[in-house]
Design a protein that fits this description.
By secondary structure, the protein is of the alpha+beta class. The protein is built from 14 helices and 20 strands. The chain has helices at residues 14-25, 44-56, 152-168, 217-220, 228-239, 277-292, 314-331, 338-351, 353-357, 398-405, 414-431, 437-464, 475-486, 492-501, and strands at 4-11, 33-37, 71-75, 80-85, 108-112, 125-132, 141-148, 174-177, 186-192, 195-201, 247-251, 256-260, 268-269, 274-275, 298-302, 305-308, 361-363, 372-374, 384-386, 393-395. It has a seven-stranded mixed β-sheet, with helices on one face. The mean pLDDT is 93.
Length: 507
C-alpha cells in the first residue's frame, strides 16, 4: 500500500498562499513532482507563480500561465523546473510531445490540472488541492496537501515546519530565499515588524552505505547527524566570547531552528571576488583567540542533554583523502591499483601521526568566506560572525587556519596567505612562549595537503554522484593550494608521488 501524508490549511489571501509555497520550497529538490488541482480561479497559477518566484529569489519574475504553451521551463539557482498546464490535454499520450512522458527525474515538475492525465502522474508526488472559501472572503482559499509514496515524508515535514513557525510566532512572516550549500540543509530569512531572523531546516542526515569500517561516510568522518551539534557548538562559542548566532527557537527532534540574523555582509569583495585584507586579519585574530582558550570537549544542548565533540583523528582523515582515490582519480581517467591505494594510504598514515599528536582545540572545519559574516557595528574579534560550525571537531589548530587562508571558493594570493599566517603565529606567540612557529608551519602544510586532497575528491563526487558540476570550477584553485603545501620540505616524498600519480584538474 502506498504511503500517504495529508494536512489542510486555510489561506486567507495570496500572501498566505505565497508563504505556504515558500515553506514547501525549503523541502523540495530535483526529481520532485508537485501537482496543483482545483476549479477555475482556485489559485493554481498563483500558487505556482509564488513557488517559482521564491526559488528564483525574484518577486518580479514574469511567470505566465502555460495554458497555451503547455509547459514553461525555468533555470533556477538550485535546480531546473518545468511548469506545465494540462488543461488542453486530451490524451495522456500528448505528454510525450512536451517532454513529460516519462517525467524527467533531474528537475522539479510543477503540474496544473493533473486530473487531465491521471494515469501519467507518478506514484511519488505532492498533490495540492485548492478550493474557494467565499465565506472567509473573496480571496480566501483552502489547500489540502497530500504526499504519496516517497513524497509523504516531505509533506509530513512541511506540516511539522508550519506548526513550528506557528509556535514561534513566525507563520505570517515574509519569507526570503537564501542560498543553500552542498548539504541537505536549507535556509530562509523571516521578516516581521520586529526585524528579521533566520530559519534553518536541518533534517537528520540520511545514512549512506556502511562501507567505511562498517559506517557510512558521514559517521566515519564525524559529520553532524542532526541539529544538536549546531546548538551545542553555537552556545559554546557565544559563551567563550565569539559571535555565533543566538538561537531563538528550536525543535531538536524535527531539526528546525530560528536563529539571530547576523546579516549578509561578508569578508570578500569585487568580481571576481577577493579577500578584504582588514576583515581577514580580524578573522585570523579570532582564530588565534579561539585557539588560546582551554575549551571543553563536552557541551550542553539542553539542561538535560549534552554533546561530546568528536576527535578529528587519523582514521577520519584517511577516509576523507580516500575520496581522491574513489572519485577524483577515476574522474581524471586513472583507475587506482591496489598497490597505488596501499602506497597512498600508507604514506598518509605515517604523516598524519604529527597532527594527531598536536594539541587539540575546537576545529570549526569549514571556516572560510561563505561562512563568515562581517559585523561592522561590533568591535575587535566580535566583528567576525561564524555561521557554519555544526561539524566542529577536536583537532589541530592549523586546520582552521588552512580553511581560511586557502579558501576553496576564492583566490587568496600567496603573499596575503603568508602575511596572514605570520600574523596568526605572532598572535599565538605573544601569549604563549612555548608556541613553536616552525612546528606550526609544518602542521599547516600537512593539513593543507590533507584538506585540499579531500576537496579535490569531494568536488568530483558532488559532480558525478550529486549532479552538481558547479563545484568543478574550484578544482584548479585547490590544486594551486595543494602545490603550495607540497613545496614544504616535510612533504617532499608526497610532492614526488603526486607528480607521478595525480593528474591536475582540467583548467
Amino acid at each position: 500500500m502506498t504511503a500517504t501524508s495529508t494536512f489542510s490549511v486555510a489561506l486567507a489571501n495570496e500572501t498566505a498562499t505565497a508563504e505556504l509555497m515558500a515553506d514547501l520550497a525549503l523541502l523540495i529538490g530535483a526529481g520532485d513532482v508537485i501537482t496543483l488541482s482545483g476549479d477555475l480561479g482556485a489559485g493554481k497559477t498563483a500558487a505556482a507563480r509564488a513557488l517559482i518566484r521564491y526559488l528564483a529569489a525574484d518577486d518580479t519574475l514574469e511567470v505566465p500561465s502555460p495554458t497555451f504553451t503547455l509547459a514553461q521551463s525555468y533555470e533556477l539557482p538550485s535546480f531546473p523546473l518545468v511548469h506545465a498546464d494540462l488543461y488542453r490535454i486530451n490524451d495522456a499520450s500528448e505528454l510525450e510531445e512536451i517532454g513529460l512522458a516519462p517525467l524527467p527525474d533531474d528537475i522539479v515538475v510543477l503540474i496544473e490540472w493533473p486530473e487531465r492525465a491521471p494515469d501519467a502522474m507518478p506514484a511519488d508526488r505532492i498533490d495540492i488541492a485548492l478550493s474557494h472559501r467565499p465565506a472567509l472572503g473573496s480571496a480566501a482559499r483552502a489547500a489540502e496537501i497530500t504526499g504519496y509514496g516517497k513524497a509523504a515524508a516531505k509533506v509530513a515535514r512541511l506540516n511539522e515546519l508550519r506548526r513550528f513557525l506557528e509556535r514561534a510566532g513566525f507563520l505570517s512572516a515574509r519569507r526570503e530565499r537564501m542560498p543553500g550549500d552542498a548539504s541537505t540543509r536549507s535556509y530562509a530569512r523571516l521578516r516581521n515588524d520586529d526585524g528579521s531572523v533566520i530559519l534553518m531546516n536541518s533534517p537528520r542526515r540520511p545514512d549512506g552505505p556502511a562501507i567505511y569500517n562498517g559506517r557510512p561516510y558521514s559517521a566515519a568522518v564525524h559529520l553532524a547527524e542532526d541539529v544538536r551539534p549546531f546548538v551545542a557548538i553555537g552556545n559554546g562559542l557565544r559563551k567563550h566570547g565569539f559571535s555565533a548566532p543566538a538561537i531563538r527557537h528550536a525543535d531538536l527532534e524535527s531539526g528546525f531552528l530560528i536563529t539571530e540574523d547576523l546579516g549578509g555582509e561578508g569578508v570578500i569583495e569585487g568580481d571576481p571576488p577577493r579577500p578584504i585584507a582588514e576583515r581577514y586579519e580580524a578573522a585570523v585574530d579570532m582564530l588565534a583567540a579561539l585557539h588560546r582558550e582551554a575549551l571543553p570537549r563536552q557541551l550542553p544542548v539542553t539542561p538535560d542533554e549534552s554533546y561530546d565533540i568528536p576527535v578529528f583523528d587519523i582514521d577520519a582523515w584517511l577516509i576523507e583523502i580516500g575520496l581522491m582515490l574513489e572519485w577524483y582519480l577515476p574522474d581524471r581517467g586513472v583507475q587506482p591499483s591496489e598497490e597505488l591505494r596501499t602506497d597512498f594510504l600508507g604514506m598518509w598514515r605515517g604523516l598524519l601521526e604529527k597532527p594527531a599528536a598536536a594539541p587539540r582545540t575546537w576545529v570549526i572545519r569549514d571556516f572560510h568566506s561563505p561562512n563568515i559574516i562581517w559585523l561592522a557595528e561590533r568591535t575587535g574579534i566580535l566583528r567576525v560572525g561564524i555561521i557554519d560550525f555544526q561539524d566542529a571537531l577536536l583537532g589541530p589548530a592549523a586546520y582552521d587556519v588552512v580553511s581560511l587562508l586557502q579558501d576553496a571558493r576564492i583566490d587568496v594570493p600567496e603573499q596575503l596567505e603568508l602575511s596572514l599566517l605570520t600574523r596568526y603565529i605572532k598572535a599565538r606567540r605573544a601569549t604563549d612562549e612555548s608556541f613553536d612557529p616552525a612546528g606550526f608551519a609544518e602542521l599547516y602544510a600537512i593539513m593543507s595537503a590533507q584538506r585540499n586532497t579531500r576537496l579535490l575528491g569531494t568536488f568530483a563526487r558532488l559532480n558525478r554522484r550529486d549532479g552538481k558540476p558547479q563545484y568543478l570550477k574550484h578544482q584548479p584553485r585547490i590544486w594551486t593550494y595543494l602545490e603550495r603545501s607540497l613545496a614544504h620540505p616535510a612533504l617532499t616524498t608526497f610532492r614526488i608521488w603526486y607528480t607521478a600519480n595525480v593528474p591536475p584538474p582540467v583548467p
